[in-house]
Design brief:
heterodimer, A: about 210 residues, alpha/beta, Aconitase, domain 4, 7-stranded mixed β-sheet, 7 strands, globular, B: about 475 residues, 19 strands
């Protein structure tokens, strides 16, 4: 996974709260292969009208926010469905960081697993960032080492789980890390067979652990 | 080696919650920062969130570590109409074929669309006895919390985590906080599990449970059937909590006894002895405690585009202008505009175009019995299209054995094949723009049941009564209640 340390990029304000993962990517697009990318489906039903035309009043469609790699939103971003496709849509569009006062649990862990930073800011700081981006489009800076977001002179702190931060900074892959615990897993499984024989599935299909 | 490993599994000191116990019981290793590697006992897989996980395994040359602890089923995409006919949706056909191929290649048990055991992943897990108390259960679906009704630690995961579990049978987790939601008293006639959980979400909000695992307790919860407890646990995620659970008791054991994958013989007896220890200790610490009075709960209807937007059937559509918090006020104004509703409208004056009875929230046999009891002897309103989608092939068979299908069909309901259907509109079952639906599903998000569709979340009996009346009615006043 591509490490995330610092990012200098266009930020786009999305002044909505409770943007659930059904809005980030409507379910009907999840049947499609990701080969062509999910970026076109990002926030689809907010970005496009019923005829498929881009809505001029939606920030991601504004010329000033083109090429955005940071999205600043309001509270409870990514609540609802566990669909990782929501993260695929953001990542494939080019977003590398979402800044918001709070995130849905599953969305946030999915984000980190795809190198997308969920940066949690206070409500007042979030409002200040939104106001700054709405007043004047321009570059913003996300510094994961210092846990700061900056737009010009506006410089605010963000929080991210320290374990996630380390993982993002290093671009680590979870499965590689877990594979290094193979002996501990084997010991757990061996102990568990004796401890909870009832928990072994009664099935004739599939190789046992 | 064992001595080095097991001290790290050391339980939380002092009295423990049910969640503490199950979590501690599955810790493979614990890092100093609190990150744990958790062993996963059961993994459920469906067609939508698994293709990239299998692709990842293929690319890295990894096998599935424990195919016998993995069970796959097709549910999100399948048509609910006659499956012997060609499916015109090429994307669904391809995704379903990919699951069949992946499960064959990796040696995983799979129920296809023609298998009587096929159904919504959260209906079939318990039905097969794959879901057991005291186990860890995951699935690439946020409503995996359903299985917590059996006293399992069950939650949704993303596709990267699906791949992680397939490859390692473990999950990297940090312990969540403990919340207990106690619902006291006896629920009034006509008020059920769905009303309870909608009321809870209305109380804590959709982010209220974020970072917590919820344990549901109290007389009203204990008095619910297993189906009812599943309804409550199912919607934990709508309150922000990844997992919800109920301490298992005789009802849970009776439900599981004799199920195909449940333990049998001496293992059953061992299991029962262990399962009986699965309850929060007296004095266990909960980071948050919520209490509701079940006896005073009315039937609940959602009015907005978030599951926290709920009100009594006797109520009025609320006025967002009365909300002090500006962000919240804006969100609720937007919700009213999307829903095409005006503040002050009586809930019982809201008329409906569609009624959907089904989903992993309310697609079980008890839900269909409750709906059929309301419907019997009536006709669906001429302005309403109403459908019943059983949660699984076995639920459908049971309902047909009881003659419920005949009651629904005689009333003018459609009686469909099992699947997720109009809960999330991935197949042909969906609302047209601005159609208004009374739905027994779990999410009223914008576009959830179809582009610009308008969803009101209700219980099966409320949905059934709405189908007959063509508008919401207080089911407590229905002749059959």
């Amino acid at each position: 996974m591509r490490p995330f340390t610092q990012l200098q990029a266009v930020g786009c304000p999305l002044s909505l709260s409770g943007v659930d993962t059904d809005q980030i990517i409507p379910a009907r697009f999840m049947k499609r292969s990701r080969a062509e990318g999910y970026g076109g489906y990002l926030l689809h039903d907010l970005r496009f009208d019923a005829g498929g035309a881009a809505r001029a009043d939606f920030p991601l469609n504004a010329p000033t926010y083109q090429g955005a790699q940071v999205l600043v939103a309001r509270r409870n971003f990514g609540s609802g469905s566990s669909r990782e496709a929501a993260v695929y849509a953001l990542v494939d569009y080019g977003i590398r960081c979402v800044v918001a006062p709070s995130f849905g649990d599953i969305f946030a862990s999915n984000a980190v697993n795809n190198g997308l930073l969920p940066a949690t800011v206070s409500e007042p700081d979030g409002e200040a960032l939104l106001a700054a981006l709405e007043a004047q489009a321009g570059p913003m800076q996300v510094d994961l080492e210092a846990c700061r977001v900056r737009i010009g002179a506006l410089d605010v702190a963000f929080a991210v789980d320290p374990v996630w931060r380390t993982k993002l900074l290093n671009g680590w892959d979870d499965i590689d890390l877990t594979t290094s615990h193979a002996a501990a897993i084997a010991a757990f499984v061996a102990g568990d067979r004796a401890r909870r024989p009832w928990a072994l599935p009664r099935t004739t299909v599939g190789k046992p652990d | 080696m064992i001595l080095r490993t097991f001290p790290m599994n050391a339980p939380t000191s002092g009295p423990r919650t049910l969640y503490d116990k199950i979590f501690d019981d599955h810790v493979v290793s614990r890092q100093e920062d609190g990150t744990c590697l958790l062993y996963i006992d059961r993994h459920l897989v469906h067609e939508v969130t698994s293709p990239q996980a299998f692709e990842g395994l293929r690319m890295s040359g990894r096998p599935v570590r424990a195919p016998n602890k993995t069970l796959a089923v097709v549910d999100h995409n399948v048509p609910t109409t006659d499956r012997t006919l060609p499916n015109p949706d090429a994307e669904s056909v391809a995704q379903i074929a990919a699951l069949a191929e992946n499960t064959r290649e990796f040696g995983i048990e799979y129920y296809d669309g023609f298998d009587v055991r096929q159904g919504i992943v959260h209906v079939i897990g318990p039905e097969q006895g794959f879901t057991l108390p005291g186990t860890t259960i995951v699935c690439g679906d946020s409503h995996t919390s359903t299985h917590g009704a059996f006293g399992a630690l069950a939650h949704g995961i993303g596709t990267s985590e699906v791949e992680h579990v397939l490859a390692t049978q473990t999950l990297i987790q940090k312990k969540a906080k403990n919340m207990r939601v106690t619902v006291d008293g006896t629920l009034p006639e006509g008020v059920g599990a769905k009303d309870v959980v909608l009321a809870i979400i209305g109380t804590i909000g959709t982010a209220g449970g974020t970072g917590y695992v919820i344990e549901y307790a109290g007389e009203a919860i204990r008095s619910l059937s297993m189906e009812g407890r599943m309804t409550v646990c199912n919607m934990s995620i709508e309150g922000g909590a990844r997992a919800g659970m109920v301490a298992p008791d005789e009802k849970a054991f009776a439900y599981l006894k004799g199920k195909p994958k449940a333990p049998a013989g001496v293992h059953w007896d061992e299991a029962i002895r262990f399962w009986e220890t699965l309850k929060s200790d007296d004095g266990a610490f909960f980071d948050s405690e919520i209490r509701l009075d079940g006896a005073s709960l009315p039937p609940i209807v959602s009015w907005g585009t978030s599951p926290e937007d709920v009100i009594s059937v006797e109520g009025l559509v609320p006025d967002p202008d009365a909300i002090e918090d500006a962000v919240r006020r804006d969100a609720k104004k937007r919700a009213l505009a999307y829903m095409g509703l005006t503040a002050g409208t009586r809930i019982t004056d809201i008329t409906l175009d569609r009624v959907f009875i089904g989903s992993c929230t309310n697609g079980r046999i008890e839900d269909l019995r409750q709906a059929a009891k309301i419907v019997e002897g009536h006709r669906v309103n001429a302005n309403v299209n109403a459908m019943v989608v059983p949660g699984s092939g076995l639920v459908k068979l049971q309902a047909e054995a009881e003659g419920l299908d005949k009651i629904f069909l005689a009333a003018g309901f459609e009686w469909r094949e099992p699947g997720c259907s109009m809960c999330l509109a991935m197949n042909a079952d969906r609302l047209a723009p601005e159609e208004r639906c009374a739905s027994t599903s779990n999410r009223n998000f914008e576009g959830r049941q179809g582009f610009k569709g308008r969803t009101h979340l209700v219980s099966p009996s409320m949905a059934a009564a709405a189908a007959i009346a063509g508008r919401f009615v207080d089911v407590r006043t229905w002749p059959q209640v």
